[in-house]
């Protein structure tokens, strides 16, 4: 009798926390200060946008933690939506992450990382895409080894990223001479968008908290560890982001931040710590983003694997393959890698990140509503219950709807494009099931 390899259940709380924190804290907090400020119109509103984004993320995490504790298996959102709302919506949730969200968010992080790397070495801008591609390939290959390797890399990079984070916070608060609150955008760029768009931009920086749910089948005690990792991890990131944003606004005038754009954090580092210190800080930020990209490319292939095991994807036989020794989905990892590489050639990282958040929040919002359905359907004791029910899931639901409405108003064509790609999954599902039925006869 052939024994099929299974995923290794080896991840503990330390690994889970490092994946949550390490996946969230990456490029967003270092690159999104200018875009959040431009949309918010003032430093006070920008800081408020970071806090609102954090609160929405925390309530979202608490809501998903209750669902995830009841469904502690590999697949995350794909499994949750299917179990609550049925096969088609579950498939679309998985398809969205496999084809749109996972590769796109990975490409976006790699794109932001390539900006810093080319700046660091003084390479021309045309090197950005090749550098992004190399980073995607290298970290994808890393995650084809046993999951302990990716988890160790997450722990290592999470510890490394504390250095630039601490340096920016301490230096900005102690040595900044700008009034952090009350600065209004008046020159350089005309403020555009609104608070909804500003909050949406912060949510890219907070993104990644749910990815630990994709590893439910590889955690030692997911009913207990999954809620702990999400709650502790998101709360820590909310505090860190608020302090970093305050420090940046205290060190640099608002219009200077807008003038520098994506290079604002690099300028702060070089100004504060000199040429050598600035480069060391830049290295820390690059390592931070490597950890984020590692978290994406560690977790998203698990969705591909979970869907392939159900026969929900083309070439499922290959995508569901686990390496017999490493117990990792090597072909699924390769598939996410290839799609992410393609996206680096066609999308600007900043625009890509906003559309990614919109797309995944369509299904987050559906899952938030699903908690109420699940509570009505299941009356047995739960491993974890969201506190202050129903207030917390209602805040998460309201925040999700607010984000969706804001993006529809401000970028309707981008929304139509990404929704179109998601809806294309339905004929794909129909074709797969039709071919399956023909093979059975």
Automatic annotation (TrEMBL):
Its main location: membrane. Pfam families: AA_permease_2. It is a multi-pass membrane protein. It is found in: Membrane. Keywords: Membrane, Transmembrane, Transmembrane helix. GO terms for cellular component: membrane. The chain crosses the membrane at residues 12-31, 47-68, 89-115, 127-145, 152-174, 194-217, 229-252, 272-293, 328-346, 352-374, 386-406, 412-432. One of its GO terms (molecular function) is L-amino acid transmembrane transporter activity. Gene3D superfamilies: Amino acid/polyamine transporter I. InterPro entries: AA/rel_permease1, AminoAcid_Transporter. PANTHER family: AMINO ACID TRANSPORTER (PTHR11785), SOBREMESA, ISOFORM B (PTHR11785:SF512). This is Amino acid permease. It comes from Ligilactobacillus saerimneri 30a.
């Amino acid at each position: 009798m052939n024994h099929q390899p299974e995923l290794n259940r080896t991840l503990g709380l330390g690994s889970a926390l490092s994946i949550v924190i390490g996946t969230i804290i990456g490029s967003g907090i270092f690159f999104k200060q200018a875009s959040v400020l431009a949309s918010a119109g003032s430093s006070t509103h920008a800081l408020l946008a970071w806090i609102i984004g954090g609160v929405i993320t925390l309530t979202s995490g608490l809501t998903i933690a209750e669902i995830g504790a009841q469904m502690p298996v590999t697949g995350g959102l794909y499994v949750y939506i299917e179990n609550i709302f049925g096969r088609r919506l579950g498939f679309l949730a998985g398809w969205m992450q496999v084809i749109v969200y996972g590769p796109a968010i990975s490409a976006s992080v790699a794109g932001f990382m390539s900006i810093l790397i080319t700046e660091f070495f003084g390479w021309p801008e045309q090197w950005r895409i090749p550098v992004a591609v190399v980073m995607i390939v290298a970290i994808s290959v890393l995650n084809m080894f046993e999951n302990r390797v990716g988890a160790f890399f997450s722990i290592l990079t999470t510890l490394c990223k504390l250095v630039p984070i601490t340096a920016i916070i301490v230096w900005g608060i102690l040595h900044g001479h700008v009034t952090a609150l009350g600065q209004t955008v008046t020159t350089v760029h005309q403020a555009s968008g609104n608070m909804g768009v500003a909050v949406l931009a912060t949510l890219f920086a907070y993104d990644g908290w749910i990815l630990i749910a994709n590893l439910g089948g590889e955690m030692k005690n997911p009913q207990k560890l999954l809620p702990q990792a999400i709650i502790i991890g998101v709360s820590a990131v909310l505090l860190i982001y608020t302090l970093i944003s305050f420090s940046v606004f205290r060190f640099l005038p608002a219009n200077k931040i807008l003038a520098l754009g994506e290079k604002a954090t690099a300028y702060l580092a070089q100004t504060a710590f000199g040429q050598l210190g600035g480069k060391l800080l830049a290295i820390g930020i690059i390592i931070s983003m490597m950890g984020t990209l590692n978290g994406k490319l560690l977790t998203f292939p698990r969705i591909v694997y979970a869907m392939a095991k159900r026969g929900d994807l083309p070439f499922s036989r290959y995508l569901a393959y686990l390496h017999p020794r490493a117990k990792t989905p090597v072909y699924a990892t390769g598939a996410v890698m290839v799609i992410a590489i393609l996206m680096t050639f066609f999308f600007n990282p900043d625009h890509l990140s906003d559309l990614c958040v919109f797309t995944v929040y369509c299904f987050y919002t559906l899952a938030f509503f699903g908690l109420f359905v699940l509570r009505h359907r299941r009356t047995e004791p739960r491993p974890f219950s969201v506190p202050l029910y129903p207030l917390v899931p209602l805040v998460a639901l309201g925040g999700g709807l607010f984000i969706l409405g804001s993006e529809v108003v401000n970028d309707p064509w981008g929304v139509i494009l990404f929704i179109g790609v998601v809806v294309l999954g339905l004929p794909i599902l129909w074709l797969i099931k039709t071919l399956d039925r023909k093979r059975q006869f």
